[in-house]
Amino acid sequence: MKIESQLAQIGSIKEPVTGAISFPVYQATAFRHPKLGQSTGFDYARTKSPTRAVLEEAAAQLEAGDAAFACSSGMAALQTIFALFSQGDHLIVSLDLYGGTYRLLERIMSRFGVTASYVDTNDIDAMSTLWTPNTKAVLIETPTNPLMMITDIERVAAWAKSKGLLTIVDNTLLTPFFQRPIELGADIIIHSATKYLGGHNDVLAGLIVTKGKELSDEMAFLHNSIGAVLGPQDSWLLMRGMKTLALRMERHQHNATTISNYLLEHPAVEDVYYPALPHHPGHEIQNKQSSGNTGIFSFRLKDARYIEPILRHIKLIAFAESLGGVESLMTYPAVQTHADIPLEIRQAIGVDDRLLRFSVGIEHADDLIADLAQALEAARREIEEVQ
Ligand SMILES: *Cc1c(COP(=O)(O)O)cnc(C)c1O
Questions:
Q1: Considering the entire predicted model, what is its pTM?
Q2: How many domains, in total, are found in the chain?
Q3: Pick from 194, 291, 311, 347: most CB atoms within 10 A?
Q4: E-strand stretches of 174-277
């Protein structure tokens, strides 16, 4: 079945008693045992819960994995994955990383003796140099955010396999609608489902998808033991959002492509970082491994003085953190999402004081362009007045 149909039908044939098309919210933590030694399949909701189970089954199928685990946030999902590792273990991680993942590794996992090295994951030689006998996994984001760097998943996964390492892919930005890393050799997928999967800026959630029985069993043990699981109401809300994922991603891609081209031509803009643009260094790999492009991109102004007035003058577009929702949001990575990443690293990768990140919503592109145009024009006038 095509992914559009799988998405629209999440949970719709799963309710055996009433035939409800929308799978109900089972707001229950305990389940009666028919008799000693018997179970309905549900015992206690941290281990398995009916509404969450329907979501998890759908997520595993969409990502071509064997099992999925719904967590209370993307960070909870990452923490659960990192519990695979023990004192002394080492990870190789994408350079331009989500700030929260960097913080979890550097401020928390480091206290448990798990270390990480950050590298351009297209540079296999650099990765080989960083490899030690204690290296256990490679963690990649592709595209990264905010600079939208692309990693060749198949190439990294093949290298990782040759070294006996797990390949973990954060697939938040493309979702299984556009990219399925397990089919390219990855072992574990993590999602901040708060973003495109949920899609409405109203539910915080994370997903883990695993390939292989041993890894799936281990993850089930960690998910239940740590307990950072998603509740039934939020599981339902996430499924409700996922049903329209295909339509939303197509519109996000269309809008982001149209608007990135507009900004590329704008005299105040130095460059636009969006893999759909032919001049983007990751354009070819992106086209090879994904069937489409995400709805976020970043752009660099020629003059840092534009930043403050743009953020003050945008009206339809909200100045807010997060991404992947139907509403357009703009953020300033250097002081918001990436504030926890040290200045030297931020500057080395290009997250500087002239960079804005735009999560393009599903509004009409003409209205979004009009909003950007008036904000850029208002900023230009203010700067001229000061001079
Ligand atoms: C938001 C985000 C996370 C963290 O997810 P939360 O749901 O906010 O906990 C992890 N990775 C990426 C790429 C993200 O965008």
A1: 0.96
A2: 2
A3: 194
A4: 188-192, 206-210, 269-273
Please report, for the domain that includes residue 238, its CATH number.
3.40.640.10
Residue-wise pLDDT for 316-339, tens only, equals 999 999 999 999 999 999 887 777
Residues 262 and 161 in one domain: no
Alpha carbon of 96 to ligand 1 centroid (Å): 14
Q: Which atom of ligand 1 is nearest to the CA of 145?
A: 13
204 Cβ below 6 A of ligand 1:
yes
pLDDT of 311 over the 80 cut: yes
Q: Can you give the residue range of the structural domain that contains 11?
A: 3-242
Residue with CA at minimum distance from ligand 1 atom 8: 74
Q: Read off the pLDDT band of 357 (50, 70, 90).
A: very high
Tokens encoding 273? 């970082």
Report whether residue 194 contacts ligand 1, using a CB cutoff of 6 Å. yes
Whether 96 is in the pocket of ligand 1, judged by its Cβ within 6 Å, is no
Which amino acid appears at position 213 of this protein?
Answer: K
Partner residues linked to 90 by β-bridges: 115, 135
Main-chain dihedrals φ then ψ at residue 6, nearest 5 degrees = -60, -45
